[in-house]
Design goal:
The chain contains nine helices and seven strands. The chain is an alpha/beta fold. The protein folds into three domains: 113 residues, Rossmann fold, CATH 3.40.50; 35 residues, Double Stranded RNA Binding Domain; 68 residues. α1 links the parallel β1 and β2. It is elongated. It starts with 13 loop residues before the first strand and ends with a helix.
């Protein structure tokens, strides 16, 4: 196995994207969605990036890339169609031991980006180690069909239950059988069918009084 799988926390981290076209815009959106502080360097940028900058979501530097742009950056993504520039970005990042991804050029990356299915706190990542992005995309679509939108409220509910149990001084080792009962009793299917009353009944049977679905997922 060549790549070390990891989920990276980039919230409030300074990240750099070089290139403001369609690919760069998609990379920027994902970084912003994950809470990164994003700077985009490109002589030309998409209308969507202009809107994001106007809304204060990103910082735009509408000019050519400079090596100094990498200073104090946690992560950099190169998204240009200039092969010479892409290799220069890679070399500059390597010199600083900075995380670097060059779009569609796995041979000059020190990390690659998987195809992602996002269901709130459930994140499924598929990678072919850069060998076949087309197949990774196909697998992502298959997983999107398999794992529906119900997983987002399901995990919010499970997380809220866990926090309440911990606040009530339940021993963590005692939680496992409770969660297993909820799962095997079909909690996920009830959420998918939006059967609120049945969900509350199940929560009461397994956890006791005071656990109500809508209250728990809205926090």
């Amino acid at each position: 196995m060549r790549y070390y799988p990891v989920n990276l926390d980039i919230k409030d981290r300074a990240c750099l994207v070089i290139g403001g076209g369609g690919v760069g815009t998609r990379k920027v959106k994902t970084l912003v969605d994950c809470g990164a502080v994003v700077t985009v360097v490109s002589p030309e940028v998409s209308a969507q990036l202009e809107k994001m900058a106007a809304a204060g979501l990103v910082t735009l530097e509408k000019r050519a890339y400079q090596a100094t742009d990498l200073q104090e950056k946690f992560l950099v993504i190169g998204a240009t169609d200039d092969e010479v520039l892409n290799r220069r970005i890679h070399a500059d990042a390597e010199a600083l031991n900075t995380l670097c991804n060059i779009a569609d050029r796995p041979e000059i990356c020190n990390f690659i980006l998987p195809a992602i299915v996002n269901r709130g706190d459930l994140v499924l990542a598929v990678s072919t180690s850069g060998k076949s992005p087309a197949y990774a995309k196909k697998m992502r679509k298959d997983l999107e069909n398999q794992f529906g939108e119900e997983y987002e409220p399901f995990l919010r509910l499970m997380g809220a239950i866990r926090q309440r149990l911990l606040s009530e001084a339940h021993a963590p080792e005692a939680h496992k059988p409770l969660f297993e009962k909820l799962i095997t009793a079909g909690l996920l299917d009830l959420i998918k069918a939006n059967r609120t009353e049945q969900i509350d009944t199940l929560l009461g049977e397994v956890l006791g009084e005071g656990y109500h679905y809508q209250e728990l997922i809205t926090g």
